[in-house]
Amino acid sequence: MSVHKSGNRLIRHAFLSYSSSCQRCFSSCLLRNGIPSPNQLTAGHSSFWRVHSKASSTGCCVPRTWSRVRFYTQDGTQENILKTEEEGQSAEHLKNATRPAVEKDATIVLHPLSEENEPGFQGPERHGALFYDLLTACQSPSDVLDLAEKYTLTWRRVSNSLTKIWETTKKLSEEQRRYERRLMFEHPVFEQLCQRLMEDSHKMRSDDLAYSLLALVKLGVSQRSQVIQTLLRVIQENLNKFEERALSVLANCLEEMEGSKNVDALKAGLRLLVEIRIPKIKSVTALQTMMRCIGRDAPVSLKRKLEHKALSMVRQFSVPNSQYMFTTLAAMNFPSKALLDFCSNKIAENIHGIPFWRLMYVLQSSRDLRYHNYTLLSAIGSYVASTFDMWSSKQVILFLLLFEDHGFRHVGLMDTFAETVMKDPDSLILKDVLNILKVYSQLNHFPQRHGQQFPESLSNVLETYLSKILPAELLRGVFSLCLLGHFSNVLMDKLQQKDVLDELLFQEGRNQGMHERMLHYVNLCLQLDSPAVSSTTALSAAKPPSTTFPVNLDLLRTLQVILEGSSFQKEVLLDNGYFIDFSITLEKTMKNICDLSQENEAAISEDCRRVAVLCGQSSSFCLGTLHPRGKLAMKMRHLAALGYDTVLVPKHEFETLSEEERVEFLKKRIFAQTETTGDVSNQ
């Protein structure tokens, strides 16, 4: 009998003795099964007996203190490296025991018995089918491990068992997942799975290798462990054999792994393989798989090659291909405008019938790529508005939040949704109220039929959550209402309480600076919008943001031409923190420039008026329009309260005009007899 078979059978009988309620004599087990005693084994395999020296030295019953070695990891910080149970230890002590590192000579691999030697073996087909039927029915990691304990661990069963463990874990809550993971690491069969995985990894198919690695990484096995490092090395050796599906799984797995020599080498090999296979790619699905495989950190030259290949195949793109291209380019972190434009038009033309989550993925990927296509967004918004009754309120809110991320204001959809909210505002939960306020305030949208009644209705709902709202949430809600020009005495009083302000202003965190800026704007609204609410000294302590921008030289030259040498101010920073690009003082007749040398800084002559010329960035306007967004609209409102007439110049459109058009553009707005503050017509 070979040493491996002898050791294997010894392991099995040791486990049986360990779990059995009646203690069996260890030496009797050896004699009854014809297994040679330790001194009959060759010296070359003595390390196995050193691991079990405690069991062999007693010469009688197998003790309950038999050591179970977690040999599948080399990471000393792994929670379940080694479990040692000493005689006389209490259960509480065992629970908190520190597990020492594994000895190098304790990692001898013992091959399990083949299926043919298993008791009750009924043939591979029937036996295998039964296993996979039972595996499909498992509902937890423990179920899978208990099932695997009853069968021979072939490499296919190991791979499928690990994948099933991960699948069942995904369905659990976070608390259940932690509990099941602890049970999994303590289960003796889990180490057997990892052992067999290391032994048979060189025999496994590419799909099984990729899925096994992904499952172990997702389950939280240390990435420095021996089993994962072994899989990485075997995958490197067999990478040329990997097909599209296995490459896609492998790429997703590598994205979540920490950098190491084996991981970095495998990523480099994966990119080289993709580059070699580009000319042979015939299908769009295969191309998109390869594009996802290279990852975000791939060289730009390789991304360009894949882009050119994709552009050469655009006629083959189906609607699902076009949708999937957005997530593919987001995975690459490569905003190819040519590809995105083509796919956007394809989706816009076939928008009806596209499922909700696919539209979500398209919008999320566009946001991540900073790609804002007005045609695509309009098509999605119109589709949702025209089929409004088939969407839930939660789904519409998600659409609106993503539209706000793009700076896109779909008037029809927002008006329709506002009608629904006004019918039953009390049905909204706190999160919904805050999200709706954020969208409508940031996009500076007032429903056509309701106006200020809409923010007032949302404010009343927000007041009902006052007893359990967090200070940060309260600030978000109040700030959004201030952008819309609505003020609630109840909410303001709550916000200005000392304990609330202390938590917002003095509690260290990444949001502290944002809280200071929001409180500053709330304080400005209380001072300049003249509500029936006063601000406290504590609220006034919020520091104004220092926002200065370089002067637009094209705008400066055009103003110099128009004003013909008359003086004006540039880069004006007001005490309240507002920045004005250019300040011009005109007579009320709107025809002449006031002499600034005679102007008193404290009080301007009643015969003069001040004009604030603001150069607005494209991000300050709603996408595709000149409708100012929330903060810009509030700034214009406050400048009007300070005595300024505002001339708003959209930078992205101003730069496209000729010199003559620029002069005409500014003259019309600065010297107009009737000034329309806050509204700029499209040029």
From TrEMBL:
GO molecular function annotations of the record: RNA binding
Protein name as annotated: FAKD2 protein
All residue ranges annotated as the RAP domain in the record: 611-668
Pfam family for this entry, one: RAP
Keyword line: Mitochondrion
Ranges in a coiled coil: none
InterPro entries per UniProt: FAST_kinase, FAST_Leu-rich, RAP
A Gene Ontology term for the protein's cellular component: mitochondrial matrix
Biological processes annotated in GO: mitochondrial RNA processing; regulation of mitochondrial mRNA stability
Protein localization: Mitochondrion
Protein species of origin: Atractosteus spatula (Alligator gar)
